[in-house]
Amino acid sequence: MSAAASGADSVIARLPKVRGTYQPRAMLKDLTWFRAGGPADVLFWPTDTDDLATFLRGVPDDVPITIVGVGSNLLVRDGGIEGVVIRLGRGFSQVTPEGANRVRAGAAALDVAVAKGALDAGLSGLEFMRGIPGTVGGGLKMNAGAYGREFKDVLVEAVALDRRGERVVYGNAQMGFTYRHSSAPADLVFVEAVFEGAPGEKAAIETRMNEITEARSATQPIKSRTGGSTFKNPPGHKAWQLIDQAGCRGLRRGDAEVSTLHCNFLINHGAATGDDIEALGEEVRAKVKAASGVELEWEIKRIGRFGGQS
To answer: I want to staple 265 with a disulfide (CB 3.0 to 4.6 A). Which of 83, 237, 259, 277 is the partner?
Structure first.
């Protein structure tokens, strides 16, 4: 048995009994849009909220916990992730109408599914979620947005479990939303959220969603191994313009490339590692700083250990 496998087994031996699945040495590149990065010591798929609460109540305090969604805005480094990575699955993906103008969505529900649920309920105002390639849980963490709207504009409340497995509910104001950021405690595991729209004509809602789909297809490399927008827009600037002006469009590091279609996207052409992609992003940041004096801030979440670390 390898030292890595032995280490994963020793972590599992300390974890509580659950109804879900523990997967040792799980390759996270299979779960991220970049298709790069190292393994989790242990990957946990909880069955439902009660199963997740059981895990959180029983996991030792010294075992690190990381939450991942669909992996659309995530870069995993090649050394992998220590401790337990939690991935919410089907038990957290329902989208249902609630009351006159609201929908409730599980944290694992895709944002596009929320937009579709709102369409089915005849609710306008949530069409922008059609343009966000992620899940509700990830969107809550970063105040995701697209096409002029953000989570902060439509969220009523978010439901989460804390590190002790206790249920907590945060209203919109308590989330502390700012541009691509939430100040809610980092150790919360969001399990569902309630969003509010306004009554609308289904035909008009569907037309707007189709417009967003077409705009994304025309301007973003959505069929490539990418991670969405790489850097936040600095105040008064657009990140893609700064990157273009710094001469970074098409810049490569091995199989990692700055997209020629939209240069705020990084692409893995097949063999790029997580560390390759991050190094390319840092090169872009350095070139932009040298050319414009503006320092780009990562929007993509980077997690884990660099390759070769243990």
So the answer is: 259
- Give me the residue label for tokens 């919109």: 172
The distance in angstroms from the start CA to the end CA of the chain is 16
The residue from 192, 196, 278, 299 that is catalytic is 299
CATH 3.90.1150.10 assigned to 3-90: no
Which of 3.30.1220.10, 3.40.50.720, 1.10.10.10, 3.90.78.10 is the CATH number of 222-303?
Answer: 3.90.78.10
**Dist CA 288 CA 244 (whole Å):** 9
| Catalytic residue, candidates 229, 253, 257, 285 | 229
Candidates 231, 223, 230, 274; CA nearest to 253 is 274
d(CA 245, CA 1): 51
Per the residue annotation, which of 104, 180, 225, 285 is the catalytic one?
180
The pLDDT tens digits for 130-152 are 999 999 999 999 999 999 999 99
- Tokens at residue 168, please? 């907590």
DSSP bridge pairs for 302: 75
Identify which of 158, 120, 116 has the alpha carbon closest to the alpha carbon of residue 137.
158
Domain 96-218 sits in CATH at: 3.30.465.10
SS3 label, residue 285? helix
pLDDT confidence band for 223 (50 / 70 / 90): confident
Chain position carrying tokens 């809550």 = 140
State mean pLDDT over 229-246.
97
Question: For this structure, is 299 an active site residue?
Answer: yes
